[in-house]
Design a protein that fits this description.
11 helices; alpha+beta; 17 strands; 28% strand
Length: 392
């Protein structure tokens, strides 16, 4: 049996809360590994947290370290130290970046074939950690730098992964303050035909805002899974929020559906999240017709607007906690700093853009962010070329 397949089977058979230990045992037995270290990225994407029982190593910063560079660039790096080589590998599955796996093996055994096998194993451990989250709290607990607020706990459980890749597009999203969010959220789903995305902002603060956002996203999912078109998804969510709050609370939302075969883009603008297109060195706001936030009246008829994305287009969506955030001198982020942040992140993949832009926002704001801030980035590559299959 191939070594990597044997390790994959061992992980598939392992108890969900023992994945790191089984991984280490299997790599030591199959690859003569001298050291194995799995690190998970924290909620704020500031550090890589060790997953180890007993005495744990110190966290590794994402900025300025080889492990952080591997996490950011999603390419392995090796460090040779005499008779041993340590290879750091991105632990990611279907574009969802979980962390970094570091494995130390005898230098004589570190070959291109070994590297490819370890890359597959790193993807497997990422997949297994994601799946284990249904049964065990271990990985959620060990990736945290500090305790989440109750509202943030509710929001993170509601959200999908923070990045996704397909042949047609790449997507990334992030929100701050990561450990104390309440009303902002996002959701997406990919089918054979389309990518559907929602960026929402429930009014209020704390648990009440989180509950409001949860209701809206659940209603949007329910409508989407029933096969309803984008405008009807908004109408159902509008009815659901109004039925619960009778107009005393609302959710601002931007809904988007991207056809993967054509680049056709449907947009429903129901509130404050704004959309920009970055193409050929320029950034332009896309300003669809502003319609009522979800839950204002309960009987709003929403109308989608249509445009076409071109291969190479980058679409950015940001909440009002981003574009309206003032500097100490009163200048809004969108007035000048937004374009500067877009230019500074132009060469980054979408998975890295949101966190980088939110760091620029924090510098602009000059202190810890108090309002929720969310950035979503989509790169449209174009329809899938014939013969290209979806990655497994």
């Amino acid at each position: 049996m191939q070594r990597d397949i044997a390790v994959e089977r061992a992980l598939s058979d392992a108890d969900p809360d023992r994945l790191p230990e089984v991984l280490e045992e299997s790599l030591c037995a199959r690859y003569d590994a001298r050291a194995v270290e799995l690190r998970l990225v924290d909620y704020a994407i500031h550090s890589l947290q060790p997953v180890r029982r007993g005495r744990r190593p110190e966290p590794v910063p994402v900025e300025g370290t080889v492990q952080g560079r591997v996490f950011a660039c999603q390419e392995p790096e090796a460090e040779e130290d005499g008779q041993e080589t340590t290879v750091h590998l991105p632990a990611s599955f279907r574009g969802d970046r979980v962390g970094v796996l570091s494995v130390t093996v005898p230098t004589t055994q570190y070959t291109p074939a070994t590297l490819e096998e370890l890359r597959r194993i790193a993807a497997v451990i990422a997949r297994e950690v994601i799946l284990a989250g249904r049964e065990s709290d271990r990985y959620e607990v060990e990736r945290r730098v500090e305790r989440l607020t109750l509202a943030a706990e509710m929001q993170w459980l509601l959200l999908p992964g923070r990045s996704c890749t397909r042949p047609e597009f790449s997507l990334g999203a992030h929100l701050e303050p990561a450990y104390a969010i309440y009303g902002d959220g996002f959701d997406w789903s990919v089918s054979a035909e389309s990518l559907t995305l929602a960026v929402v902002n429930g009014m209020g603060e704390g648990v009440e805002a989180s509950l409001l956002t949860s209701l809206a996203i659940s209603a949007l999912r329910n409508a989407r899974r029933a096969g309803l078109p984008l405008a009807d998804q908004a109408m159902l969510a509008d009815e659901a929020v109004f039925a619960r709050h009778r107009g005393d609370a609302h959710v601002e939302a931007l809904l988007l559906r991207l056809e993967l075969g054509t680049g056709r883009l449907e947009i429903v603008d129901a509130g404050s999240p704004h959309l920009w297109r970055v193409h050929e060195g320029g950034i332009e706001p896309l300003s669809p017709e502003a319609q009522m936030p979800l839950g204002m009246f309960g009987d709003t008829h929403y109308r989608p607007e249509t445009l076409y994305a071109k291969p190479g287009d980058r679409l950015l969506i940001a909440s009002d906690g981003v574009y309206a955030a003032p500097s100490p001198g009163g200048e809004k982020f969108e007035e000048r700093a937004l374009a500067e942040a877009v230019e500074a992140t132009r060469s980054l993949p979408p998975a890295q853009v949101p966190a980088a832009m939110l760091r620029a926002l924090a510098d602009h704001y000059g202190e810890t962010l108090l309002d929720d801030a969310i950035v979503t980035c989509i790169d449209w590559h174009g329809p899938r070329p014939e013969g290209v299959v979806e990655p497994s």
